From TrEMBL:
Catalytic activity: Release of an N-terminal tripeptide from a polypeptide
Location (main, coarse): secreted
Binding site for Ca(2+): 535-536, 554, 556
Cofactor(s) of this protein: Ca(2+)
Stored Gene3D superfamilies: Peptidase S8/S53 domain
UniProt KW keywords: Calcium, Glycoprotein, Hydrolase, Metal-binding, Protease, Secreted, Serine protease, Signal, Virulence, Zymogen
Entry's Gene Ontology BP terms: proteolysis
Enzyme class: hydrolase
Active site per UniProt: 295 (charge relay system), 299 (charge relay system), 494 (charge relay system)
Species the sequence originates in: Cerrena zonata
Protein name per the record: tripeptidyl-peptidase II
Cofactor note: Binds 1 Ca(2+) ion per subunit.
Location(s) in or outside the cell: Secreted, Extracellular space
Organism lineage: Eukaryota, Fungi, Dikarya, Basidiomycota, Agaricomycotina
Purpose of the protein: Secreted tripeptidyl-peptidase which degrades proteins at acidic pHs and is involved in virulence.
Amino acid sequence: MGQSRLLPSLLLVTFVAYVLPLAAGNDSLPQRRSMAIHEKRTNIPRHYARAGDADLDAVMKFRIGLKSRDVTGLEKALYDVSVPGSPNYGQHLTANEVRNYMSASAESMSAVAEWLSEHEITDIDPSSTAGNWLSFSAPVSKANELFDTTFHSFVHKRTNEVTIRTLEYSIPRDLAHHIAVVHPTVSFGTSSVRSSVSSIARSDVQARDETIDPSCNNTITPKCLQDLYGIPTTPATQSSNQIAVPGLIDFFAQFSDLKSFLEEFRPDIPSNTTFAVETLDEGRNLQGPDKGATEANLDIQYTVGLATGVPVTFVSVGNDTTDGALGFLDVVEYLLNKTSPPQVMSMSYAFDEANISPALAQRICDTYMALGARGVTLVFGSGDAGVGDALFQNDTCFEFNPPFPGGCPFITSVGGTTNINPEVAAQLSTGGFSNVFPRPAYQDPFVLPYLDALGNIYEGRFNASGRGYPDVAAQALNVKIINNGNETFINGTSASGPIFASMVALVNDRLAQAGKPPLGFLNPFLYSHPEIFTDITSGNNPGCGTPGFNATEGWDPISGLGTPQFAKLLAAAGISDEA
């Protein structure tokens, strides 16, 4: 989402000699099981080109996602604790309760491990916090045999990075009810993760509201956002209420830049206010004048700098990931396994939905659902490519290009706006409809009227029955940060996400003060209270040679329900505003 992105290799491939023991005779060979295609893609993703067969000796790390015991029951439990008015509203699940839904059965573990053992695979690892994965390594030659396929090398057209994948794979028919997904196989998008931020020269806009500093049309600072959305400066008081900010692809948040940011833009709070750091997958948070990344600094500065007094933790995910999804699963499983997970997670990274398989997308989305059931609000910037393609913005395309995880119904997607009162939907604001996830019931009263008004203008370009995104919006252009000691302006929904996440965290602080649970999975609450939002009725998000969708009265796929007002958000949560 955006033009600034690093694309490190996801595959941990080494080249070694792999020698299988010689069979003593045909009787020692496993009986060939009846195989069936489990996942298949008809086309190579358009950002990739085939580069020949993969090296047969290249060793790949695989993960087999086993089917969970009762993911349907978990979804029911999630809505039971997340829909306002439900008898169990706010009674979020414990880690053990979620695990009981998400873990695989012992039968599934045993059956799949037996199949792998039949093929002389000995490094089978069943360890995972969710209890529904098996990991192992195998050379390409063995993987070809195991999955009845041929793995190829593919080169990314923009980065020249080589990835080993296949276009289809098979599993034994008798294991189909045990296996949900195998990765890496047909998913390509995890080698092109991107952040939704770009450093772009700001544009001047005429001021429209005399009650807010006119400079806010050209420079967004915490003060602008406090005035525009009514965000309080009163410090939070509940140390148990926290925000997690994941950092991927070696993007590091700088303590010195945060200090400078607070000195300039939040002089009312101590400049030594800082953030905690937790790491996984060999993650780091290197410090130095050349180590800062605009994404990480933006995320930290607009959570620490807006959610006054709320503890913020930067979770740095390294390159030694175990999930086959560049840490997307690792980080949420890490948070899911905590006894007391943070109440809000703000994340600004995405894949192209078309580049990862529906099965892998569903598995990640299910894990978001599990974290939501624990009482965590998951906030993602919607993206910076309108309805088009963030990677090749001048490329022609017919079908609109939804990102993942924007289409997952269990996260809150935040689009972008610009200007002040009236705010206008930003052209970069990615919005549309998922091709993988169906529209959730909580959206029907809002999305169906939009689709009726839209008519058939973009027929065939998007999935009208898909989950619509974004859900809400916030300022995304001309956002000022400090990066490597220098002031810079940022455009992107990477700003919108932390802004909204900070508001949610401040509401959670008031709820905790009143002895009430956090908001948790937010969308049923948001769509039950449209009065929270200032409707955005102008702007569009062009792409694929079209003007894109228009912002209009009510929900729209560029600004969602609109931009939030803190006092109304607080009131909807049942707390009077005493700030």
